[in-house]
């Protein structure tokens, strides 16, 4: 049986739903009446249209009503219509009509706001015809469909991809030129006109034209992917296609010059894909709406790279990248990294001295992904100390976020690297270790951290512990000290079980264990390995 409070809530819910279902129809809106015209004549009847506004799930009937706007007007008479049409016999001469729409459903009725018009002033021509456009200078042209004299026209235009129409001009006639249009940009436009009297036509269908080309501006955004080792010299070159606002035309290709440490250099162009070397190492990648290029050849012996983009109108400034990166700068203060599946944001305290600073570069790399994949970067003005990426960041995958300083001298300085996750879960992998040396009182362990690509959660530290008789000792090891030996000291004879596990936000993760035995009396030190025994 429902409790009293439950019955009361259900009563409110049923009453609310019933009240909503019993509402009369909404009043119709945007009532417009006109006499449609073609290129030779205008229809004798008046046609009216409106926005119903009512719930389409509830059957609703609409009736058009009209009456003389003035009681003494003998040119018009009242009437009703179910199809939105006012027949010619109900009006003549220059009379005025008052018109409204009534909506009726099973729950009641409602009326629109009335409109009043002179029956001779509502002729509506068809949209303009013969609409064309010229790209240089960007100009729209059209002819009206007026039978006699043409009147004024309206034009609206936008760049392709916009949903609104931010540009609108009235009082134009048969042509309109756009002042200072963006280069090599697709513009969409519509035109409507009247014929000196009466109403404006409907908007024409959308027409489009691409504006003329110009020489490209700016520089190519050139960077390198060094995997999860920001200071590595074994990197791969990557760059982003010019944006439309930079390209200002069709980019025919990118010319690269690779400078090697021994003084030699190699030139190549993406416009020559049939050259075997270029075809084998240059790839195009698309991610997050941006086209990137990727040089599938290591930069291990490369000192620097330069690149330009060119079109039929010219070329960009040369972009230069110094491949070598110096070590981490000291005294970098607070770092804040936040991630979810759609966004990655990072901010940092700026260095104290920015006099030689040109800009920052912020990059992310998904651990374990191939060169050039799951990788992106952003250039940040030196006056800012944070940025964000939008993307599709996989759950339970480690992302390495690094920030670099680029100096005015082109030198690149690594500031810091942080690990982030869009979502974490308990680890499936365990660290590995083995007993390397064994003496009377000491055992040295060599261990390997769980690979970053297998870390489904951020590892705060590793825990190494051992059990001997009823004694148990535990030590914490920095997670960044990978491949470092760890020595257990002051040991006594007996059987030992030693374990290692990661510590995450989920607590102590699964163990990796081994056993060994120390026997002083026989001057023997035996080691027995336990085959991958994992304990939760």
Automatic annotation (TrEMBL):
CDD domains: FN3 (cd00063). Pfam families: fn3. Residues 27-126, 429-523 form the Fibronectin type-III domain. It is a single-pass type I membrane protein. The keyword Signal applies. Its main location: membrane. The keyword Repeat applies. Residues 1-22 form the signal peptide. Gene3D superfamilies: Immunoglobulins. Keywords: Glycoprotein, Membrane, Receptor, Repeat, Signal, Transmembrane, Transmembrane helix. InterPro entries: FN3_dom, FN3_sf, Ig-like_fold, Type1_Cytokine_Rcpt_Type2. It is found in: Membrane. One of its GO terms (cellular component) is plasma membrane. SUPFAM superfamilies: Fibronectin type III (SSF49265). Belongs to the type I cytokine receptor family. Type 2 subfamily. PANTHER family: INTERLEUKIN-27 RECEPTOR SUBUNIT ALPHA. This is Fibronectin type-III domain-containing protein. It comes from Astatotilapia calliptera (Eastern happy).
């Amino acid at each position: 049986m429902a409790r009293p409070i439950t019955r009361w809530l259900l009563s409110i819910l049923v009453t609310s739903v019933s009240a909503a279902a019993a509402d009369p129809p909404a009043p119709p809106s945007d009532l417009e009446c006109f006499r449609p015209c073609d290129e030779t004549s205008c229809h004798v009847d008046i046609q009216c249209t409106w926005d119903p506004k009512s719930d389409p799930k509830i059957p609703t009937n609409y009736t058009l009503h009209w009456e003389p706007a003035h009681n003494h007007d003998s040119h018009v008479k009242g009437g009703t219509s179910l199809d939105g049409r006012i027949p010619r016999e109900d009006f003549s001469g220059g009379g005025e009509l008052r018109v409204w729409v009534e909506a009726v459903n099973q729950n009641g009725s409602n009326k629109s706001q009335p409109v009043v018009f002179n029956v001779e002033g509502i002729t509506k021509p068809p949209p303009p015809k013969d609409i064309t456009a010229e790209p240089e200078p960007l100009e729209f042209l059209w002819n009206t469909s007026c039978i006699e004299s043409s009147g004024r026209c309206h034009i609206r235009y936008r760049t392709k991809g916009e949903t609104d129409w931010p540009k609108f001009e009235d009082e134009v006639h048969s042509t309109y030129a756009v002042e200072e249009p963006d280069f090599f940009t697709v513009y969409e436009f519509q035109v409507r006109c009247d014929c000196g009297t009466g109403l404006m036509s409907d908007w024409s269908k959308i027409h489009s034209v691409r504006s003329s080309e110009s020489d490209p501006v700016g520089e190519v955004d050139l960077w390198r992917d060094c995997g999860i080792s920001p200071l590595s010299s074994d990197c791969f070159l990557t760059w982003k296609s010019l944006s439309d606002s930079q390209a200002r035309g069709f980019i025919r290709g990118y010319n690269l010059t690779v400078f090697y440490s021994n003084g030699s250099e190699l030139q190549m162009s993406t416009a020559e894909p049939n050259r075997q070397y270029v075809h084998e190492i240059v790839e195009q990648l698309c991610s997050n709406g941006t086209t990137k290029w990727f040089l599938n050849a290591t930069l291990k012996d490369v000192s620097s790279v330069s690149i330009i983009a060119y079109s039929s109108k010219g070329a960009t400034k040369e972009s230069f990248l110094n491949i070598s990166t110096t070590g981490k700068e000291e005294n970098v203060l607070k770092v804040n990294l936040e991630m979810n599946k759609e966004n990655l944001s990072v901010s940092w305290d700026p260095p104290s001295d920015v006099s030689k600073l040109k800009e920052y570069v912020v990059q992310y790399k998904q651990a374990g992904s191939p060169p050039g994949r799951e990788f992106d970067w952003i250039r940040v003005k030196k006056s800012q100390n944070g940025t964000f990426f939008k993307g599709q960041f996989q759950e339970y995958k480690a992302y390495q976020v690094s920030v670099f300083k680029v100096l005015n001298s082109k030198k690149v300085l690594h500031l810091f690297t942080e690990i982030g996750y869009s979502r974490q879960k308990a680890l499936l992998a365990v660290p590995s270790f083995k007993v390397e040396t064994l003496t009377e009182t000491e055992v040295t362990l060599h261990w390997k951290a769980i690979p970053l690509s297998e870390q489904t959660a951020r590892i705060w530290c590793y825990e190494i512990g051992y059990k001997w008789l009823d004694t148990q000792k535990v030590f914490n090891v920095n997670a960044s000290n990978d491949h470092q030996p760890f020595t257990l000291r002051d040991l006594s004879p007996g059987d030992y079980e030693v374990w290692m596990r990661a510590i995450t936000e989920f607590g102590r993760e699964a163990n990796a264990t081994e056993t060994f035995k120390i026997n002083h009396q026989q001057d023997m030190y035996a080691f027995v390995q336990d085959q991958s025994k994992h304990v939760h």
